[in-house]
């Protein structure tokens, strides 16, 4: 506990993020929409760069689809299209410095091991479901991101 003398001299310092990363799960708009809204809301007055990341998961494909070589390309194209829709929404909101980030793998690992070191966010915003579901959506991976993130994480429900 701080001695009262130190607390008397303490002044609140404004913290303004320079880069905000929001994780979007194109398969789960419910957990993503609130996180996206929150990330846009805090990025605008801070004039922060907004990185919008979505993760294409190969585990989402069933055995039969995995035999079709074009199925992953189809998933990548769909995710890319959805990602660009989010970018457009952010730009319409007033965020001119918006970066789409498409990656593959398990959401928490791909975001923390690949995206964070390259994008270098000050803050990560993720959505999380209020009820447990099976699968590896970004919302269900929020706990892994929180535990291992080198930067602050805000979970939006």
Automatic annotation (TrEMBL):
Residues 18-157 form the UspA domain. Pfam families: Usp. Transmembrane segments: none annotated. It comes from Bombilactobacillus mellis. InterPro entries: Rossmann-like_a/b/a_fold (IPR014729), Universal_stress_UspA (IPR006015), UspA (IPR006016). Belongs to the universal stress protein A family. This is UspA domain-containing protein.
